[in-house]
Amino acid sequence: MYQAKDTRYETLPYRRCGKSGLMLPPISIGLWHNFGDVDVLENGKKMLHTAFDNGITHFDLANNYGPPPGSAETNFGRILKDSFLPYRDELIISTKAGYTMWPGPYGDWGSKKYLVSSLDQSLKRMGLDYVDIFYHHRPDPNTPLEESMAALDLIVRQGKALYVGLSNYSAEDTLKASKILKALGTACLIHQPRYSMFDRSVEDGLLDVLGEEGIGSIVFSPLAQGLLTNKYLKGIPEDSRAAKSTGFLQKDTVTEAVINKVKKLHEIAHNRNQSLAQMAVAWLLKDERVTSVLVGVSRVEQLLDNLDALDNLKFSDSELEQIETVLNS
Q1: Distance between CA atoms of residues 237 and 263, nearest Å
Q2: Is the distance from CB of 262 to CB of 228 less than 8 angstroms?
Q3: What is the rounded average pLDDT of the residues 198-220?
Q4: pLDDT tens readout for residues 157-206
Q5: What is the distance between the alpha carbons of residues 184 and 164, in angstroms, rounded to a whole number?
Q6: Confidence at residue 242, expressed as pLDDT on a 0 to 100 scale
Q7: Of 29, 181, 208, 245, which alpha carbon lies 20 to 30 A from 45's?
Q8: 243 pLDDT higher than 50
Q9: Which of the two residues, 255 and 165, has the higher pLDDT score?
Q10: Residue 254 above 80 pLDDT?
Q11: Dihedral angle computed from the Cα positions of residues 60, 64, 70 and 72, in that order, rounded to the nearest 10 degrees
Q12: How many other β-carbons are positioned within 10 Å of the β-carbon of residue 137?
């Protein structure tokens, strides 16, 4: 029977999520990959045990995580039942809806019908009465924003989620959504955007909106699908994501110019006594508007390596200038 370490809250510097009362760990664990039916459940269990033992209280899911879709929630529910039920009130569990889950007109996007039905299914899969955070996973161009936000407000009032958030929303739509939610009486707690050294689109207005509206953020793909690690220093390994025909990171995007940037960033990290991955995580956390960095790992060792990034979160002006020079080259 799993028993969490007594020292689990002694090391992580928890960060306030926007202007809310909720504190989140600086690193959270995502179940996008490695928790589906195609994966080894025992490995997933070990990673979650290690995460919680080290103070990571936030586990992030979505209705479509797997594969197949839904299986990550089902498998998490099994781990929750076996290991974490005594600690439920110490956990922040989030899920999302917004991508295709079932056939027909009610299994996708952002209608009230879809969002409410999807969360009901998610709760059953995980064996929960409520989630701590429920996100609209992506904006729906064909459903009025007022309807999607009213669904989030309804879900909170029904007691199925404590907080609500947005993911993949533009700065403009985030501002509109936040205003609607505030008028309804349910504030937007958090936004989950893609953000890394190699994808800085959130700096073009979104982070400013989050700061102004008092919304926290938890960023995904902080290592640019593995590019910001030591894996690609000598090209594309056969077992890497870029070597596969499927997935977000494709071989034709890993150019010589990109590899040269990775090598230069690796050198800067080395001079900071960090791995490139650790520096990439620390670089994101330098901005107080970033509440938490969402990491996806396939091994316990990767998780521990990411946690070691917290040993050095400060950057000198010189280091920041060097990084900017590399990224803009």
Answers
A1: 15
A2: yes
A3: 98
A4: 999 999 999 999 999 999 999 999 999 999 999 999 999 999 999 999 99
A5: 13
A6: 47
A7: 245
A8: no
A9: 165
A10: no
A11: -40
A12: 24
Residue 10: other Cβ atoms inside 10 A: 9
* Partners of residue 96 on adjacent β-strands: 135
Tokens 């929750």 locate to 80
Angle at the Cα of 281 (from 280 to 285), degrees rounded to 5? 120
Our separate counts of H helices and E strands in the chain read: 10, 10
List the structure tokens of 267: 């050198």
HSE (CB half, 13 Å, CA atoms) of 269?
22
Q: What is the DSSP letter of 98?
A: -
Dihedrals phi, psi of 16, to nearest 5 degrees: -70, 135
250: pLDDT strictly greater than 70:
no
198: Cα within 13 Å, side-chain hemisphere: 22
pLDDT at 246 over 80: no
Q: Tell me which H or E stretch contains 192.
A: strand 188-192
Q: Which residue is listed with tokens 């996973």?
A: 137
Coarse DSSP helix, strand, coil percentages of the chain, rounded to the nearest 5 percent: 45, 15, 40
Buried b (16+ CB within 10 A) or exposed e, 162-174: bbbbbbbbbbebb
- Angle in degrees, CA 43, 49, 52, rounded to 5: 140
Nearest to 15 by CA among 7, 5, 6, 25: 25
The per-residue pLDDT for 238 is 58
- Residue 199: phi and psi, rounded to 5, are -140, 95
Confidence (pLDDT) at 248: 54
Query: What CA–CA distances, in Å, run from 180 to 35, 39, 123, 151, 183?
Result: 35, 40, 26, 12, 5
Asked if 168 and 137 count as a contact pair (C-beta separation under 8 A), the reply is yes
Average pLDDT over the chain, rounded to whole? 94
Which alpha helices (H) appear in 35-136, and where do they start and end?
41-53, 71-79, 112-126
Classify 95 as helix, strand or coil.
strand
Torsion sign over Cα 173, 174, 175, 177:
positive
